[in-house]
Amino acid sequence: MTIKTFTFNPFQENTYLLHDETGEAVIFDAGCMNDSEKRLLKKYIDDNHLILKRVLNTHLHIDHQFGNKFLFDTFGILPEAGEEDEFLLQNVVNQARMFGLPINENAQELGKYIVDNQEIKFGNSVLVAIHVPGHSPGSMAFYAQKEGFLIAGDVLFQNSIGRTDLERGDYATLIRSITNRLLTLPDSTLVYCGHGPTTTIGNEKVNNPYL
User: Fold this and answer.
1) Which domains does the chain show, CATH number per domain?
2) How far apart are CA 137 and CA 153, in angstroms?
């Protein structure tokens, strides 16, 4: 499987495009905000002759879903996310304005909800959704057991964890989520974070001062 990372928008958010030998692809956290970022993402899809099958969100904070409407308008695919995060799609224009961002269109509505332990399939590939609330109530991580990696969103970072001071965040819940659902994965599991560099589960067990 190929994992292509794009770092988009002023928040330096990591958007991940996964594709395998079949040419089928999925996108996690489409953060492309301006026209050049949108063109860059589409160019990669076109140049590699990919068939985009799903648009998935680890959570719905604005920096992780700026590009959802663009992808729906371009490919006709509605985004998917945890139902508990759907409230974050409200008042996106006002949220963006608070950060001084020129967003003038409402958020793209969801097409489907993602639930805990759901299999995410495309081509010959399978990931499993893991509900990890705390950073947001509907946060999901996605684990590829065969390939040994995790798409973690903003739950777990290299030597850090997601913030919990945003609406409906909760520190104790986040620590439980990480401890009970993520640190139980093999130490070798490569963690693709919502911001910043990759890490491993083993590294976070030893070096993360929050855990």
Assistant:
1) 2-207 (3.60.15.10)
2) 13
